Amino acid sequence: MGEAEAATTLLQSADEGAFSGRYVAYEGRQILNFVCCSYLGLEQREDLKRAAISAIERLGVQFSCSRAVLQSSHYDELEQALGSMTGGHAIVSATTTLAHIAALPVLVDARDAVIVDQQAHASLHTACALLRVPINVIRHNRMDQLEDQLKQLSGKHQRVWYVLDGLYSMLGDFAPIDELRDLLARYPALHLYVDDAHATSWTGTYGRGYALERLPDRSRVVGVLSLNKAFSAGGGALILPTEALAQKIRRAGGPLVFGGPLQPPLLAAAVASAKLHLSPELPGLQQALTDRIKLAIRLASEQNVSFMDTSVSPIFFVRCRATEKTFSMIKGLRDNHGIYTCPAFFPIVPRGHAGVRITISLHNTNEDIATLIGALASEARRLQHSEGSGERPAHVKIQPPEPLRSRGMG
């Protein structure tokens, strides 16, 4: 991180002033924003802002009491709405990380085994480290390795938990849900714990995300949604298959008992966002984002810009291999083209696979996306020319190398 900070590619601060979503203010310039995760741009909606302001005026800026003692009535309204969105039983937490830390130690007991995808979000690895069972790590999306582990562990353990992301935060690739559905049918011991933070809101019926949409039988599935990112409020939500399991975690999950609550403005904004998700307006917003994503994929193909994965998701990754080359491209995009993007390097991604992470939202216009793709092509040519090499800096599809515990952030 220190190296990236010195290169002015991480740990930077935006200038003071209003934030529109389309631009970020940086060192006196308005720069196109391709780093934020508010994929549907809801944080600028008047209904969400009015809900937050009203909550402050009625309740103040905080509700300073543990939920174990007394909670704001907003929690009940929000959890009911999330249940309607997902068809499950919802528990709201202060963050998705705290949701993992609350839930996994309750869900996993000494008779269970745990398998974690190599590229699962860092928060999942953090929570799994708290478990008192062996943790087995498999290479990214390798269902053959998962099945080998299931064959070995199913007879020895009551349950085998596979911990994964629904949409991975670095490459923008999805979990192989069809294959997982087949494994669930063939291995009764298999249970899934899916962090779908980056797929929340912009995909799935009522914005329930990628995994919950594609797993109709969720009797052995726990989903986790983000109420930040595209939901544009604050906190996270566990989606449980039964009310009994939800109550067990609610009463025994450490951060849910002793942790601080979400504050009134965030809860109120989340309730307003949930109402929007349940309204007829959401599918149009989802389609508008999908159209922008497909435009980016088409323009990249036309201009020979190679993304690591071309799934229809709002996250794209251009691999540069070397960290120094990544920093150079990030600064070139910002200083030469007025585009703000995010670097990813070890340990965020495996060694030798550093690159530029890009996110697209409804704040970005079609013209902005065309500018982005043109700038990526230009910067790739600049780097290639400066090295005097024929290597194209952003093409080869990733093969997950060691170390196995490299994973995404954000």
Q: How would you explain this protein's 3D organization?
A:
The chain has 410 residues and is an alpha/beta fold. It has 2 domains: 2-33 and 281-387, Aspartate Aminotransferase, domain 1 (Alpha-Beta Complex), CATH 3.90.1150; 46-277, Type I PLP-dependent aspartate aminotransferase-like (Major domain) (Aspartate Aminotransferase, domain 2), CATH 3.40.640. It is 40% helix and 16% strand. The chain has helices at 2-6, 46-59, 73-86, 96-107, 122-128, 143-153, 177-186, 210-214, 243-252, 254-258, 264-277, 282-302, 323-337, 366-387, and strands at 23-26, 29-33, 89-93, 113-117, 135-138, 160-165, 190-195, 221-226, 236-240, 315-321, 339-340, 342-344, 354-359. A 7-stranded mixed β-sheet has the order 3-9-8-7-6-4-5, with helices on both faces. The chain has a 3-stranded mixed β-sheet with strand order 1-2-11.
Produce the secondary structure layout:
Blueprint: H1 2-6, E1 23-26, E2 29-33, H2 46-59, H3 73-86, E3 89-93, H4 96-107, E4 113-117, H5 122-128, E5 135-138, H6 143-153, E6 160-165, H7 177-186, E7 190-195, H8 210-214, E8 221-226, E9 236-240, H9 243-252, H10 254-258, H11 264-277, H12 282-302, E10 315-321, H13 323-337, E11 339-340, E12 342-344, E13 354-359, H14 366-387
Parallel strand pairs: 2-11, 4-5, 4-6, 6-7, 7-8
Antiparallel strand pairs: 1-2, 3-9, 8-9, 10-13, 12-13
Helix pairs in contact: 2-11, 3-11, 4-5, 4-9, 12-14, 13-14
